[in-house]
Amino acid sequence: MAPPVSCLLVAVLFSASCKATASSDQTCTEKEANKIYNCENLGLREIPDTLPNTTEFLEFSFNFLPAIQNTTFCRLTNLIFLDLTRCQINWIHEDTFQSHHQLDTLVLTGNPLIFMAETSLLGPRALKHLFLIQTGISNLEFIPVHNLENLESLYLGSNHISSMKFPGNFPTQNLKVLDFQNNALHFLSREDLNTLGATNLSLNLDSNDIRGMEPGAFQAKVFQSLRFGGTLDVSVILKGLQNSTTRSLWLGTYEDTESQDLTPAMLEGLCEMSVESMSLRQYRFSDLSATTFRCLTPLRELDLTATHLRELPSGIQGMNSLRKLVLNVNHFEQLCQINAASFPALTDLSIKGNLGVLDLGAGCLEKLANLRRLDLSHNGIKASDCCNLPLKGLRHLQYLNLSYAVSMGLRRQAFQESPELEVLDLAFTHLTVMASQSPFQNLPLLQVLNLSHCLLDASNQHLLEGLGGLRQLNLQGNRFQDGSLSKTNLLQTVAGLEVLILSSCELLSIDQQAFHSLGNATHLDLSHNSLTENSIDALGHLKGLYLNLATNSIRFIPPRLLPILSQQSTINLSHNPLDCTCSNVRFITWFRENLHKLEDVEETVCENPPSLRGVKLSEVELSCGITAVGIFFLVVFLFLFTILFIFAVKFLLRWKYQHI
Ligand SMILES: *[C@@H]1O[C@H](CO)[C@@H](O)[C@H](O)[C@H]1NC(C)=O
Ligand SMILES: *[C@@H]1O[C@H](CO)[C@@H](O)[C@H](O)[C@H]1NC(C)=O
Ligand SMILES: *[C@@H]1O[C@H](CO)[C@@H](O)[C@H](O)[C@H]1NC(C)=O
Ligand SMILES: *[C@@H]1O[C@H](CO)[C@@H](O)[C@H](O)[C@H]1NC(C)=O
Ligand SMILES: *[C@@H]1O[C@H](CO)[C@@H](O)[C@H](O)[C@H]1NC(C)=O
Ligand SMILES: *[C@@H]1O[C@H](CO)[C@@H](O)[C@H](O)[C@H]1NC(C)=O
Ligand SMILES: *[C@@H]1O[C@H](CO)[C@@H](O)[C@H](O)[C@H]1NC(C)=O
Ligand SMILES: *[C@@H]1O[C@H](CO)[C@@H](O)[C@H](O)[C@H]1NC(C)=O
């Protein structure tokens, strides 16, 4: 820089001082008084003086700060989190954060940085998270190293970095997350990796188009996770990872990336390294056979989502360590095509979003005696007699997700094969239940049951028999006969319920005794029905509820019902046609005194009288008693009336005597 220019610059810098200048018209939003503020996208050119000195969290993205310096933030010395995303920052001058000792997170994403002074980050002694995504950095030397000893995460995605060799004095030892995704790292050498002091690092190298790696470049290093998404040739990566250890290895690819199909030979490198969990998401296999799995045998978790599988080969040997297998978004036609017997130690199996209808078959998972979790959601399943044949042998199953199937017929004891079930999700599956029988008998451990949108007849009193341990029940979107929840109903057999969802059940009324068996309820959702105030009587014995009565037909709440509401902890009354006339004044007064209990107060508005339609209940002013002016006129009126009366009597008496 030429001397006169720098003199000018220095002069400009020195003339700035630490007092706030004229504030802008637009105001920042307060998220928490004196602490959390949001000033996003307000076209600000400085920190407004309306922000208190005590501000700790500041979102300041999408403003205009081409140069920042020691005066820019000098008032806000308590800052812990500062987000300066896309503020068109080019220059970060000396000592910009000199007094910000508590600054923990600094986000500079999306700023075209030209210069960062050597001392710009001096001050924050505990800077832990630094975001330099999309800042145009091409060289790690650009980042000032002072004071970064405590750095835990460094995000450098979407830049032009071509070498991950850190300068010798760069403190990498405490790093936990290092993100280089979408840079220009085409070759990695052993020397590059040796500049990384951290162990147990999560290193992201996605979308770098890595073409070469020195064999053993990562050797003897230990990682928490490694990501090499979207590489052309997986075998190049695996050679570089020889003799390394990582808990999780993500090798998936993307639709818009050209990656070579995986052959058994390309995966040989896995035999020379130690991995616990691996993903090959979206790859295609060529020559898929039992040998493809030869070097995968030590894995504990394997993710083969969207790998275009129609079946898994038979004869896979030695996968005795695999606990979790993910086969989502593939092309299986029948469950037996996964050859489950090859994975005898599985505890967790997920086959969801299959492309095409999945037939559950009979006993396909029989060998998986240790299976705890099974996710079969979004598979277009049609099963006229579910589920004992498909679940055969799964004695220890605890979690079963069959949501978003097409249709299912359930007979008596339909889940007898898996008596240890704790969570059962059948949401959005059209269920046909044989009348007056419970398909759920013998599930004493079941805690969570989701029957939402199952087109069930919820008037079947026996439906939930055998679910003594049930805590959460979702019946959203099912129908009760005549729209009424009667005195004897299906809830009587599930007395331990804590969470009950009866929203969108087209309910018109609830019997006063309908909930009498539920003593432990904490969360009751009755929203989106057509209930009136009369149904509130049914809650008289319940206390401390989260109660959602939103979107119903409640108009008046008589004083007699107010104690029932008072004893609950949170109430949502939004979107009801509430009456704001004097006949409801006790309720309106109660409402204003209990605002702390009420949810969505903004959406709780008057419907009647027309003049008050849309006015928030919390802001309605009603004058219903007799006012002072009224009393005055009343007194005057009574006075005049009395005088008139006396005169009339006098006149009458006189008239009477005159005519005797
Ligand atoms: C900012 O830096 C200039 C030059 O180093 C210095 O004179 C000035 O006192 C600093 N301002 C504050 C508020 O620290
Ligand atoms: C806020 O900080 C500025 C600069 O440090 C100081 O002049 C001002 O007195 C402070 N205001 C309060 C209310 O502490
Ligand atoms: C490694 O890192 C993970 C998450 O970052 C953490 O849960 C784990 O405890 C760490 N392990 C060791 C040995 O430090
Ligand atoms: C991996 O370790 C083995 C045994 O320690 C050693 O023989 C081999 O050369 C190492 N491989 C690489 C690529 O460093
Ligand atoms: C079941 O799967 C669906 C869809 O994948 C998911 O939304 C739902 O949360 C799962 N249910 C449970 C209980 O985890
Ligand atoms: C069913 O309900 C459970 C528990 O409330 C919930 O975790 C799950 O996500 C729900 N399933 C669907 C498909 O929404
Ligand atoms: C209600 O909760 C208590 C305490 O957790 C428990 O002892 C009792 O068995 C529960 N009631 C029912 C009917 O499950
Ligand atoms: C109140 O209930 C309505 C309807 O269920 C819901 O949309 C809204 O989010 C609820 N309010 C809060 C604050 O949860």
From TrEMBL:
Reply yes or no: does the keyword NADP apply: no
Q: Where does the record place the LRRCT domain? A: 576-625
Entries under Gene3D superfamilies matching the protein: Ribonuclease Inhibitor
Which keywords has UniProt assigned to this entry?
Cell membrane, Glycoprotein, Immunity, Inflammatory response, Innate immunity, Leucine-rich repeat, Membrane, Receptor, Repeat, Signal, Transmembrane, Transmembrane helix
So which domain of life are we looking at? Answer: Eukaryota
Q: Which residues cross the membrane?
A: 626-653
Question: Could you tell me the membrane topology recorded for this protein?
Answer: Single-pass type I membrane protein
InterPro entries found in the cross-reference section: Cys-rich_flank_reg_C, Dev_Immune_Receptor, Leu-rich_rpt, Leu-rich_rpt_typical-subtyp, LRR_11, LRR_dom_sf
Q: Where in the cell is it found?
A: Cell membrane
Q: Which family does it belong to?
A: Belongs to the Toll-like receptor family.
Q: What is this protein called?
A: CD180 antigen
Q: Which gene encodes it?
A: CD180
